[in-house]
Amino acid sequence: PTPELRDGLIAHLKSREIMAVFHYVPLHASPMGRRVGCQDVELPVTEDVAARILRLPCYYGLEEDDQERITAAIQTFLTGATDAVP
C-alpha cells in the first residue's frame, strides 16, 4: 500500500467513527535517535514501511461486534480502492 492509500483508509474509517492513526517514527529518525548520533543514517526500507503503517483499534475489551465492523469497513474501502485502480 501507498501512504495515499493509508490516508484514504484513515479518512474512510474516521467517517465511520473508527479511530485509526498513523504516528510511527522509526527510532533512527526520532528525537532521541538523532541525539545519539543517528542523524546521518539512511534506512530507506524502514522509512518506506514507516510511511505506510496504520494503527487499527486494538485493546483489551474490543468487542467482537466492533472487530467485525472494523474489518467490514476495511474490506469495503479496499474493494472500492481496488475497483478504482486502472
Structure characterization notes:
The protein is an all-alpha fold. It has a single domain (3-84), classed as Aspartate Aminotransferase, domain 1 (Alpha-Beta Complex). Helix content is 57%, strand content 0%. It has four helices and no strands. The protein has helices at 3-15, 31-38, 44-50, 64-84. Helix 1 crosses helix 4 (64-84). The radius of gyration is 16 Å and the shape is elongated. The mean pLDDT is 88.
SSE blueprint and pairings:
Elements: H1 3-15, H2 31-38, H3 44-50, H4 64-84
Question: What's the end-to-end separation, in Å?
Answer: 15 Å
- The total of helices stands at 4
Shape: elongated
**Overall number of domains:** 1
Radius of gyration: 16 Å
What's the pLDDT, averaged over the residues? 88
Keywords for this structure?
about 90 residues, mainly alpha, Aspartate Aminotransferase, domain 1, 4 helices
Describe the structure in brief:
This protein has 86 residues and is mainly α. It has a single domain (3-84), classed as Aspartate Aminotransferase, domain 1, CATH 3.90.1150.10.
